[in-house]
Automatic annotation (TrEMBL):
Residues 23-250 form the ABC transporter domain. The keyword DNA-binding does not apply. Belongs to the ABC transporter superfamily. One of its GO terms (molecular function) is ATP binding. The keyword Cell wall biogenesis/degradation does not apply. Coiled coil: none annotated. This is ABC transporter ATP-binding protein. It comes from the Bacteria. Keywords: ATP-binding, Cell membrane, Membrane, Nucleotide-binding, Transport. InterPro entries: AAA+_ATPase (IPR003593), ABC_transporter-like_ATP-bd (IPR003439), ABC_transporter_ATP-bind (IPR050166), P-loop_NTPase (IPR027417). SUPFAM superfamilies: P-loop containing nucleoside triphosphate hydrolases. CDD domains: ABC_NrtD_SsuB_transporters.
Length: 274
């Protein structure tokens, strides 16, 4: 006897929902004038992933990030964010730059609330969100300070809070900690992982540092010079919570670091000779 479709559907075992795809590159290519930088690049990033883009200077990391940010249009192929073709910058993608890019004449609170003010959100909402974000990045108590009164690390926290306040689904970070000292850099890396765990945002993180890529990334895409964006991929599985400083000494950390290091040092493949 035929059963109604609804009954059959109810009897299906429940499967875990597949992770939602936030970013997709489909055969993306990029030229500057006639010079190719990326060729036929395809990959996707799921919600909640922290993907580290690692590679030497000039391999195309920033160009890739700029396509996701909507600052650059691919020469060929298509780049999608949340299922829509990326046609320009948008509030679903927040960019944290290496330079802090703060407004010097505004307080920390006003800097953080900037996107909300532009969106015409009420004053009290701006203040509440700014105060919450300031606390989230460890700037509680400094809401009324000006950028010149902050250290480099605090300014970068403020830049981070300003991006977070806009509620992006993807955070794009281009060497955000390159200008701060090692101790501050490690503290900020741990902060990023705590923020990621509490907000669930997706992160694409550009770095030159193998250690930073392994500590932050749930996945590393290793791009090498003159390979037009082609990458090797390294999953990273470290104990939770990911922000544990001891993770920097964990056997998995050391093993992935060694694998990535060896891959980076491999001589380029020789062109086949006729
Ligand atoms: N606006 C541009 N016009 C022409 N060439 C460019 C432009 N921007 C980047 N390039 C070139 O494209 C290549 C990739 O640059 P990109 O900045 O993406 O690399 P990167 O891996 O981010 O380097 P870095 O780590 O030094 O920032 C480099 O050779 C660079 O000189």
């Amino acid at each position: 006897m035929d059963r109604p479709v609804s009954t059959l559907l109810q009897r299906q075992p429940k499967l875990a929902a597949p992770p939602r795809e936030v970013l997709r590159f489909d055969r993306v290519g990029l030229h500057y004038d006639d010079r190719p930088v990326l060729r036929d690049l395809s990959f996707s990033v799921s919600a909640g992933e922290t993907v580290a883009l690692l590679g030497p200077s000039g391999c195309g990391k920033t160009s890739l990030l700029n396509i996701v940010a909507g600052f650059l249009q691919p020469t060929s192929g298509v780049a999608l964010c949340n299922g829509r073709e990326i046609a320009g910058p948008g509030p679903d993608r927040g960019v944290v730059f290496q330079s802090y890019a703060l407004f010097d004449w505004m307080t920390v609170e006003d800097n953080i609330a900037f996107s909300l003010r532009c969106a015409g959100r009420p004053r009290d909402v701006q203040r509440d969100v700014a105060q919450r974000m300031a606390r989230l990045v460890g700037l509680g108590g400094f809401e009324k300070s000006y950028p010149y009164q902050l250290s480099g690390g605090m300014r970068q926290r403020c830049g981070l809070a300003r991006v977070l306040a806009a509620g992006p689904s993807v955070m794009l970070m281009d060497e955000p900690f390159a200008a701060v000292d090692v101790q501050t850099r490690e503290a900020l890396q741990e902060e990023i992982l705590r923020i990621q765990a509490s907000t669930g945002c997706t992160i694409l993180f550009v770095t030159h540092s193998i250690d930073e890529a392994v500590f932050l990334g749930s996945r590393i895409l290793l791009m090498l010079k003159d390979r037009l964006g082609a990458f090797d991929e390294f999953p990273v599985t470290l104990p939770l919570p990911r922000d544990l400083p001891e993770n920097r000494l964990h056997p998995e950390f050391l093993a992935v670091r060694e694998r990535v290091y060896r891959a980076m040092r491999q001589p380029p493949a020789q062109e086949a000779r006729p």
